[in-house]
Design goal:
Layout: H1 2-174
Length: 175
């Protein structure tokens, strides 16, 4: 019985050892699984870090490109602002010129109306002078005709007188 007790003790110890071994194996399995999972996660972390670095490099490049585009747009905007400023200055000058031209146009219209009235007045005076000239011409023509008539009458009177004288002289001689 003692032998049996000892066998039982040995079996118990073997059972305990086997349980301990099983627990160690389970523990080692869990450690191995943990280490495998850890290695897997470290690989994933490394991949993610590489992806992050690639994305960061892409972001930096895109950021540089955007900064360059912004600088280009700012330069173009500066040029456009200068152009707009020049156009506004030119517009102001043109508006001043337009205002002066409108003022001059109004003055010229006033002078034009005055000149039209003056022209109408001069035309009426000219018509009156033409009428007066025509009347004087007619009067002159009448006077010229009267002079010619008088000249003829005088001429006839001289001839008559001369004949009368000649006739008187002849009569005197014949007597």
């Amino acid at each position: 019985m003692q032998l049996e007790k000892e066998r039982m003790n040995v079996l118990k110890e073997q059972d305990v050892t086997r349980k301990e071994k099983l627990l160690r194996l389970q523990r080692d399995f869990r450690i191995t699984m943990f280490q495998a999972r850890e290695a897997e996660l470290e690989d994933k972390i490394r991949d993610l870090e590489e992806d992050r670095d690639d994305l960061f490099a892409e972001w930096e490049e895109a950021s540089r490109q955007h900064e360059q585009q912004i600088a280009d747009y700012v330069a173009k905007l500066g040029v456009k602002v200068e152009e707009i400023s020049a156009y506004e200055k030119e517009k102001a000058e043109l508006q001043d010129t337009l205002a002066k031209l409108r003022e001059k146009h109004a003055r010229l219209e006033g002078h034009g109306e005055k000149n039209v009235r003056e022209l109408e007045r001069v035309a009426l005076q000219r018509d009156g002078l033409i009428t007066a000239r025509d009347e004087l011409q007619r009067h002159n023509d009448e006077l010229t005709r009267s002079k010619a008539d008088l000249g003829r009458q005088l001429g006839n009177g001289k001839i008559w007188r001369t004949r009368t004288r000649q006739n008187s002289k002849l009569n005197d001689r014949s007597e």
